[in-house]
Amino acid sequence: xxxxxxxxxxxxxxxxxxxxxxxxxxxxxxxxxxxxxxxxxxxxxxxxxxxxxxxxxxxxxxxxxxxxxxxxxxxxxxxxxxxxxxxxxxxxxxxxxxxxxxxxxxxxxxxxxxxxxxxxxxxxxxxxxxxxxxxxxxxxxxxxxxxxxxxxxxxxxxxxxxxxxxxxxxxxxxxxxxxxxxxxxxxxxxxx
Length: 192
Ligand code: S3P
Description:
Elements: H1 3-12, E1 19-23, H2 30-41, E2 45-47, H3 48-56, H4 60-67, H5 69-85, E3 91-93, H6 102-111, E4 112-118, H7 121-128, H8 141-159, E5 162-165, H9 171-191
Parallel strand pairs: 1-3, 1-4, 2-3, 4-5
Bound molecules: shikimate-3-phosphate.
């Protein structure tokens, strides 16, 4: 069996037991959508940012200012790997920048159903406001958001199983779209 077909088999097998990972830019709603989704699906929710803060007993801003972005990305990647290894079927809210590392994109694709909550830069600029607590938006938050959206769109796209455009959606509507997307993935896989 080739590596590609083995990966294909992994991805098509046991969808119902796979983690459900939410990816997308800061402010796209991963945390709130993840919480409601987990409640409705009776799954555990793992918010990687919250876990980082609690494990290191330090705010994300302090992690960046004391240790730098590269240290933060290492810590984030280690936690993501841990979360993906945990008992299957969790809802995981993945920090917006985790996809910059190829190994994280690969691990997500291998071990989760991945949903990109996509928002336009305009929506994200409004939702992130002054960018307080978000070191990646320091300086000029609107300009940083525009740059990051351009840099990351391709990375989110190549990692996601499907995309939801969230600009006009409430949290409840977004959750319903995620559930519909997962049902449709399952139907396609079981039909194979
Ligand atoms: C980041 C996103 C944040 C947090 C950190 C860096 C990014 O998570 O991990 O501030 O690079 O996009 P959220 O997307 O959950 O806000």
